[in-house]
Amino acid sequence: MNRDISSIRRDYQFKDLLEEESNLDPLAFFDNWLKEAIEACPNDPTAMVFSSVDSAGAPHSRIVLLKQRDDQGFSFFTNYDSDKGQNLASNNKACMNFFWSELSRQIRIEGEVVKVSRETSATYFDSRPQGSKLAASVSPQSHIIERDDLHQRFNQLEQTTQDNKVPCPDNWGGYVLKANYIEFWQGRPSRLHDRLCYQLDDKGQWVRHRKAP
User: Fold this and answer.
1) So where are the chain's domains?
2) Are 164 and 104 in contact (CB under 8 A)?
3) 12-126+171-210, which class in CATH?
4) What is the pLDDT of residue 14?
5) Is 147 a catalytic residue?
6) pLDDT tens by residue, 78-127
C-alpha cells in the first residue's frame, strides 16, 4: 500500500449530544437513534459488530443484523453450532456495536446473551425468504467446507422442497442480549466527541454519566 493511511481523517460535524436532550431510558433513546439511522442510512442500518469471547479468552467479532428490540433485549438469529454459538455456550457475555457513518454516531451495548424461545425462532425462520431458509438448512456454519459441496447441498434441497415448507433447523435460532451497559457516542469537531453512558445498577435502575472522548 503506497498511500499514507495515517493522514486519512475527517472532522465530525453534527449536533451536540446533551443530557437535557437525551432520554433517561437508554432503550427508548436507542429506538430513537435507530429510527433516525433507518431514515438516514440507506445500507444495512441494523448491522452491528457482535463480539464474543471463546473458552480460551480470545475475542471474536463479526457483523450480524439486529432483528428485534423489545422488553427482552436485542435479538439476532444464527446457527447455534457456529463459532459465535460455541463462544456463547462457554461465555454468554457479549458486546454489540452499531456505527452510522452518515450521522457520525455509534452505540455500544454490553450484557449477557440467552437463547430466545423455540417458538420465536421458528416464527422468524418462517418469515425469511425461501433461499435464506434453504441456506440456513444446508450450511454447517463456521465449519470447513468446499464451495461446490455447499452449492450442491443447496441445489439438492431446493429441488426437493420447491412446494414444501422448510422447517426451522434444530441448531438454528435466536439469541437476545440483555443489556447492562449502553453507550451513545456522537462525533464532534476537533475530536471533542460526546459520550453518554448508561449503567444498570444493582437495583435494576439505569444510571447515566458522561465519559471523556
Assistant:
1) 12-126+171-210
2) no
3) mainly beta
4) 75
5) no
6) 999 999 999 999 999 999 999 999 999 999 999 999 999 999 999 999 99
